Amino acid sequence: MSAQLKPSAGPRDYPLTHVLDAEGLPVSQFLYPEDILDPDSFYGSIVSGVGANPADRLRALCDRPSIGIRFSRFTEGRPYSMASRLRELGYPGEIHAVGDINQELMHHMIRVGFTHFHFDSNPGQIDASVLKPFSFAYQQTV
Prior knowledge:
The protein has 5 helices and 6 strands. With 142 residues, it is an alpha/beta fold. The longest helix is centred in the middle third of the chain and has 11 residues, at 78-88. It starts with a strand and ends in an 11-residue tail after the last helix.
């Protein structure tokens, strides 16, 4: 296993009982991510000089049906970049947001390509005004 991937330990690694889709609806059927990308180890190993170009490393994952990306804290920006880059590389599968996320950030996560959101507690159905708080966007989206 390469350094940028953190194997998921199964249901105890992140909650599977409170998963929402990009419509803000609870889902029970989805493709369980085989691996969770952890930005600290992904970019940390590149900064230290070990490993290939980040785009090449992400491109190598594009054949997987489902990828998880971990947010170590809700202010972390690198998971957004990773999801956006995967979509730019043509990744067609599910991208799961796991870790320290909240429903107010879902709008931004959806815009960069996340499709599923794993919450510690049950947020229920998310209102459309939270998912699409603006009538227009001044930036491009994937």
